[in-house]
Amino acid sequence: MSRFLRSAALAALTVAAAGAMASAASAQTYSRLVVFGDSLSDNGNLYAISGQPTSPPYFQGRFSNGPVFTELLGFSAGRFTAGAPVTGSVNYAFGGARTDSSASPPGMRNQLLAYTGAGGTFGANDLVSILGGANNIFQAVPAAAGSPNPAGAIQPVALAAAADINFIVNSVATAGAGTILVTNLPNLALTPQFNQGPFAAAAPLADYAGTQFNGALLNSLMTTAAARPGTNIILMDIYKIGATLAGNPGLFGLTNAHDACFNGVTVCATPGSYLYWDSVHPTAAGHQLLARLAVDYLYYGDIGAQSTVQAETGFRQREDLLDLTAEGLSGRAAWEAGTRLTFGAIADSVEIDARGPVAAADATGWGIRAGLDHVMSESSRMGFTATYRTAEVEAGPMDFDVESWAFDAFAGWRSGGHFVNATVGGSIDHYDDISRVTSLAPIVHSGETDGGSVGARLQGGVWFDMGGIGLSPRAAVSWVSTDVNGYTEQGIGAQYEYQDRTVQAASGEITLRAEGGGDGFTFYAEGGYRDSFGDSSDAVGTRITANPAQILSREIEDPFGGSLIASAGVDADFGPVNMTIGYRGRFGDQADAHVGAITFRLPL
Hints:
25 strands, six-stranded parallel β-sheet, alpha+beta
């Protein structure tokens, strides 16, 4: 619950300052907003020419009791009727507008003509909002309902409206707009216009018309998007959230998602708790929900970049296991021939700072290990370790668990004070219970996927005796590759589809180890520096499933970068049993990691 509250507060702040969010985002920004539409987007254009809707109780010419959702996206769009310049953010939407070339109020085709006729153009950083079609259907329902074939009468109206919207989208895309947000129609049957009163009998027909419009719009936009790859056409689906809003208004701080707050005469006592202001229009609270949903659609590339933490977790865990497996090979004590059974446990935690669009992350985990350690002679040694490991990760709006089954093999050689060892291994990784609190909190999307990691490490060094204390300068190189399979979220908001991803890099480290003690008890401390090189990791790719929206890619930097390494531990013999307790920390520019382990070795 605390996570939901934290994410809900974040979502609310995001909508309140969406423009600031866009500016802060590293790759997904919009310079201005151009709006074409009907009463759901009108910021006062119809009121300026007709005095409707009556204000008050309507808010300053809006068809609501507050700002409409396009005004909550972080842009100050001027009104067309106020002479707003076409070079800035501007709103051409009119309440009552159809999608066609109607003269008054100006249909959406005429809105576009008015914009271009005034010298308006579109650029790569522009965001264009297009929403319409409901008025076509509202005006056709009475006649269609009284006809012998209501569905047959209303279908051409819905398909023609969808064709109009697609024409406008195609025209705007052809003119060079970078991003177009197209909003489909809600479930009209759930509005007070049709869920009660004299039009209740026509609710199924209204819903049929809306679904016909939505289906035709999606199909046509997919074709248009394929033909206009220079424009990202995003379809915001408000139809599929309707049932949740109607059935569970309390989730969104509402108490009534059935009735109109304003009945044409009086206003309800608590407008902020109603979804509908009048028979078809949302309240200010409803528009805030629409704006939050729009954020999830508009910024999916940046929000989806959060999934980088999944592959980074698998990558880091593979590095940890290579380090731990090599730890027993580079100590100062002489190797004694024989075979030993090894078993133990590990625990770890990681804190990663925010990076561009990626929020800060925390991970905690544990694991158990078992294997065999075989010393052939005082100069050669080999063995293997099997590990089960699990971790819980909290990464901003995204949480997930990781379960890994790993196998590592090792071999070492030493002669005098010189030593060389090598470790190779791999793991099967399961990413379970993935959840993302959407911008429309507390709506949570879920998912799961799997992947795998492989890696190798080579280390060499030399020991010097410094009067009872051994010093060992050493160097190591590692290579790790982690794959995470793509998956699609499940949920009613903007369903993100994450692409397959590989995080792959080599790293090098230089450290100095000191070791002392004797008579079955030794201690050690080690410090040094590690940095990666040869990074060939994939960008994070995200799209919205069943949507014309493009795949957007984000290059994500290594969360650690260069990092200091510090480790310490003790090794003790208890009769035939040897025990090692150790700690290894990594302190990077943007992340810190801590791993503790205890290992027992028993002779066979």
